[in-house]
Amino acid sequence: MADKDDLMGVEDTAKRGFFSKPSLKNRSTVFTLGNRGDILTSDLEAPILVPHAAHKSEQKYTFECLFRSQHYALLDNCCREYLFICDFFMVTGNSAQDLFNAIFGKTLTMFLKHMDMYTQDCYDSIAIILSIHIILRYQVIMHKRIVPALDKYWETLLEMLWPRFQYILELNIHSIRDTDPQKLGTIDMRPHYITRRYAEFSAALVSLNESFPDERVNKLLAQLQGEVENFILRMAAEFPNRKEQLIFLINNYDLMLNVIMERTKDDSKESESFQQLLSARTQEFVEEILYPYFGGLVTFVKEAESAMERGHAEQLKREERRVQQLVRAFATEWKQAIELINQDIMRSFTNFKNGTQILQGALTQLIQYYHRFQKVLSQNPFKTMPVRSELINIHHVMVEVKKHKPTF
Q1: Dihedral sign computed on CA atoms, order 241, 287, 364, 367
Q2: Dihedral angle of Cα 130, 131, 134, 138, to the nearest 10 degrees
Q3: Of the candidates 164, 64, 156, 162, which has an alpha carbon nearest to the alpha carbon of residue 112?
Q4: CB atoms within 10 A of CB 313
Q5: Digit-coded pLDDT (tens) for 108-152
Q6: Using the 8-state DSSP alphabet, how is residue 239 labeled?
Q7: Mean pLDDT taken over the chain
Q8: pLDDT per residue as tens digits for the range 57-100
Q9: Does the global pTM surpass 0.85?
Q10: How far is CA 86 from CA 74, 77, 138, in A?
């Protein structure tokens, strides 16, 4: 069961005080829905748990399993009792409700007292939101049976559970906001454990909220997402150079995007947001990875195009020596550079598919720059330069690039 220390921004391996006690719990399960979502589908109207049989088997149950069993028994018995009252006493409306309350009032009061005691000490937000969704589905079942007997009871339960759910999420939001990257031990460029927790947790809430949308969940998720994005940027700032920062950001955005898209609809706000972040950082990384090998060519192309647009092409005459160096350097180094870029990218990204897409993006960008380079050299004052005969045919470059195209 989750406790007050099981927050998204807390880690067992964080730097601790001398007398602090180690935690043996795997916190990742606290934020994962997994098979617990079955309680709302295949197990929603499953047979109730029999206490002595469950005790004998020594099997442990999550709170929402106990909550479902107890309230499915309550739902079934209350429906039968209410319909019996209406038929036997020939009453309807408030009269039927008053008779029902006289019979079940003390039982419902006891249930509410028990729930109030539990929720005061509950830090398992997944259990709380699942219990809320069990109630929403049981309300539908009772309305279909035209039994309003528990309407007030369900509403009282929801008024008890929603504030607790919001409180637990706010604790998690604050834990992310207060996390100091320097106290989290050694970090590398792979996806961070807090990122994975957030991805699993966010995907769980988004998927649950799709069936019975509630704006309170959307607002809390938006706050949580904002804090996680800021946290990832703070973590990235721990790396000394921009290339490492971008690799870290891309690996984390990619993980969050994949987990959320796998468990929710493709058009969720969260997936769209992380797709935009991933695309922006990927484009920046492409420029960063090309620069050590082709930076001179890229810089020249941008400068020459700018000069030509302003009508200052004649000023480029003094760049003939620079052009010769760029043409000959490209001719001797381009194949090796492509191979080194390939190795670097495949080594940097944890998701092979994402790595191959970034490689294709980098090589496509290289071809575009080289095409622009050739176009610049085909115009005055470069078109009569003898070194143009030493230019590598762009089709040779494209053939080499195709060798690195993924087969999947």
Answers
A1: negative
A2: -170
A3: 156
A4: 16
A5: 999 999 999 999 999 999 999 999 999 999 999 999 999 999 999
A6: S
A7: 91
A8: 878 889 999 999 999 999 999 999 999 999 999 999 999 999 99
A9: yes
A10: 18, 14, 21
Q: How far is CA 257 from the centre of its chain?
A: 5
CA 290, CA 69: separation in Å to the nearest integer? 60
- Residue 152: count other Cβ atoms within 10 Å of its Cβ: 12
Ramachandran sector of residue 310 (left: φ over 0; alpha: ψ -120 to 50; beta: rest): alpha
Query: Residue 163 phi/psi, 5° resolution?
Result: -60, -35
Query: Residues of 94-110 as b/e, b for ≥16 C-beta within 10 angstroms?
Result: eebbebbeeebeeebee
Amino acid occupying residue 359: L
Looking only at Cα atoms, what is the longest distance across the chain? 107
What phi-psi label fits residue 268: left (phi over 0), alpha (psi between -120 and 50 degrees) or beta?
Answer: beta
Q: What is the pLDDT of residue 230?
A: 97
Q: Taken in order 16, 18, 24, 30, is the CA torsion positive or negative?
A: negative
> Pick from 339, 396, 345, 347: which is nearest to 367 by CA?
396
Instruction: Report yes or no: 406 and 360 within 8 Å, Cβ to Cβ.
Output: yes
- For residues 237-250, one letter each, b for 16 or more C-beta atoms within 10 angstroms of the residue's C-beta and e for the rest, the string is eebeeebebbbbbb
* CA nearest to 32, candidates 248, 234, 262, 218: 262
- What is the rounded CA–CA span in Å between residue 172 and residue 47? 35
Q: What gap in Å lies between CA 352 and CA 166, rounded to an integer?
A: 37
